Amino acid sequence: MNTENNNDGIMYRAAAFGIFIVLVTLIILIAVSTAKDAADAADDRESAPDHSGETIHTPDTDPPSGSDTSEPEVTDPPATDPPVTDPPATDPPATDPPVTTPPVTDPPVTTPPVTDPPVTDPPVQPPVPDASYMEELEAFYAKYPDTVLKQTADAGQAYIDKMVFLGDSTTYGLKYYAMLNGGKKTTQVWTPESGTLTLSQASFATIVYPETGEQITIEEAVRRKKPEYLVITLGVNGVSFMTEESYFKSEYKKVIQIVQKASPETKIICQSIFPVCADYKLVNSINRDKIDRANRWIVEAAAECGVKFIDTNSVLRDAGGWLPTKYSNGDGIHLNPTGFTLELNNLRTHAWPDQE
Amino acid sequence: MKKTLSLLLALLLCLGFIAACGDKAPAYRTDIAPADLAAAAEPSLTGASSMTDPGSDYIAGMMQADLSLFDGQIMKIQTIGTAIDEYGIFKAADPEKLPEIEALIKAYLEGKLAAWIPDCMPEEEYPKLQAASYKIFGSYIVYGILADTEKEAFFAAIEAALLEK
Q1: Which residues of A touch B62 (CB under 8 A)?
Q2: Residue A345 and residue A349: Cα distance in Å, rounded?
Q3: Is the CB of residue A54 less than 8 Å away from at least one CB of chain B?
Q4: Nearest residue of A to residue B1 by CA position?
Q5: How do residues B3-31 score in pLDDT, each as one tens digit?
């Protein structure tokens, strides 16, 4: 990071200039004084040794005891050029913050094109999460019986077709892999053009409105479309730095409230943040513990806003709490078609109460 | 002669230091609201028209800043397209608090860099974040996550506005 304080620069320059002037003056005065004294001394002596090319150092008027004043000390002539004093740089040296992320030269993750149609009723078996973890989680969910969606009969593809999915790059895969009605041209996915949607910016960020290709705010998109169901999957980009519960929840609630205001009839389902793989390269920033903590904040935010929550994290995590690599597209954070199938099946089997 | 010389040198030295200490910093104005400064400098940014002010909640949350530190602030973030352009202008309520504000901004920029997710973010934008910088103009601190040329022009426009009589 480069920084510059324009208030300090002028002070440094002035100080350096003052010191430079003093040094130059000192040298000139010493030279003049020495030459004058030498001339005086030469006049006083009847005979002087030949010191051509040398400057005669005049002894002090009050020489220290024991010094020999009869033999003048020969010294080098003073330098005629003033000392070079580089002015201090106006800009302090750049202080780039330490880069904690991998270099940008990392090759982008290339996901294979999907040729198979989406599979919505596959024999895909979800991983088995840790039993004690699930027990503890169920106890937590029990405190929010009206918020956490419970297991239901399969609500079918028609239920999924009524949904719009709002989220970040973890949601974009639904379109990329053609997992929804309309395939890669589905109008059910709302994500920004940049691909990512950080929770802290979700309340003012824009998404690409599929029907027109315009980039509009979430509020505007909801107002236009008034989706019957809106599935919000946000937060994975925030867990690394939105570590304050109140901040995370307030930003999440802000998004919910924007939707509620723009389309009061829309049924909002807040989906848990998906797990990441244990070998995810940014696992220090985005990891199981941070995601688990944030997911509980999402439950609370949903409850406080009177909307629903669906736990898809538990469907995608193994006994260690991580996303199995077979459900990832290879980068450790995004799902592949099998992972998305698990997500969609989970939505179908944890349907909104009136869809049971 | 030596004593005279020493006295003269001492006198010159003192004069030099007095001159150095007495020299004024550029007389930056202190009466311009950050929003007005932003308006003055935004013509130097090509994408300014689609930048959004996230509001004080965002600043308080993301910077974990006590807003009373500021006698006005504005932040603008690009919300259209894939650019991550962003700037902020903060006016210190108390000049003595400038170092505290500076520390907040530095931590904010470092945090953004640390939170960058290569797989999700537009790769070509990363250099802007790596080169993010800030400048101090009197009571104002201005940061920019912008392309180099735009950032220089933006800082220059801010400085020009603050030096206007």
Answers
A1: 200, 241
A2: 6
A3: no
A4: A33
A5: 776 666 666 665 655 555 555 668 899 99
Looking at CA atoms only, how far is residue A352 from chain B in angstroms? Answer: 31
Contact A11 B61 (CB under 8 A): no
Contacts 24+ apart (CB under 8 A), A349-354: A349/A151, A349/A152, A349/A153, A349/A154, A349/A155, A350/A149, A350/A150, A350/A151, A350/A152, A350/A310, A350/A311, A351/A149, A351/A152, A351/A153, A351/A155, A351/A159, A352/A149, A352/A155, A352/A159, A352/A229, A352/A267, A352/A269, A352/A308
Q: Chain A within 8 Å of B80 (Cβ-Cβ)?
A: yes
ipTM of the complex, rounded to two decimals: 0.77
For the record, the structure tokens of A258 come out as 């924007």
Q: Nearest CB to A18: which of B17, B58, B138?
A: B17
> Residue A353: helix, strand or coil by DSSP?
helix
Q: What is the pTM of this model?
A: 0.72
* Nearest Cα to Cα of residue A221 among A176, A283, A166, A179: A166
Helix H or strand E segment including B8 = helix B2-22
Q: Do B16 and A242 touch (CB under 8 A)?
A: no
Neighbouring CB atoms inside 10 A of A73's CB total 11
pLDDT, tens digit (0-9, with 9 covering 90-100), for A142-181: 999 999 999 999 999 999 999 999 999 999 999 999 999 9
Pairing of strands B140-145, B86-92: antiparallel
